[in-house]
Amino acid sequence: MATATTKTYCITCNKEKVTYKCGGCSQEFCYKHLGDHQLELSKQFDEIEVNRDLFRQALTDYIEQSDNHQLIEQIDRWVQQSITIIQQTAEQTKQILIETKTQYFQELEMKLSKLTDQLRNKRQENDFNELSLHHFQEELNQLTKELAESLTITIEEESTSFISRIFVDTSGKISVPYVHGNFVHV
Q1: Residue 136 pLDDT > 80, yes or no?
Q2: DSSP 24-73
Q3: Does 68 or 94 have the greater pLDDT score?
Q4: Region 117-143 average pLDDT
């Protein structure tokens, strides 16, 4: 650390003595004060190590007490809410599908029932001719065509999202405790 020189003045006691130049601060110290200077440097080094240890503890505490679990819970709530929205939408869509198909087939049933009643009446009364047979055949053909073509139903998806997208925003500053001197600041 220090090298002996010719007699010069010690920076601490200001006496002319054999001095040693500190390799760090380039000051001249007598043998007695060189030890004091070394001791002061050692104390400063100890303080830096203590502050480093305090910072390590503050960082560890921050990591352990981090609100990550709250953020994970927020994501889990979003998942559950999204699932609920999807399930509700699916149930509503199923209900509309069932009601639409039911209504369509009920209308066909009513038309068939009406045709059946007309056929029974004509048969009971034996009151039919080629024109009425042709009319009945046309009605039956129309019902057959409606059934064959059936109700064309497709399930479509809208491009607008009804579930909000989530993401991690890291643009904000995180308040992390830091060590200055012997104090942890928050």
Answers
A1: yes
A2: TT--EEEHHHHHHHHHHHHHHHHHHHHHHHHHHHHHHHHHHT-THHHHHH
A3: 94
A4: 94
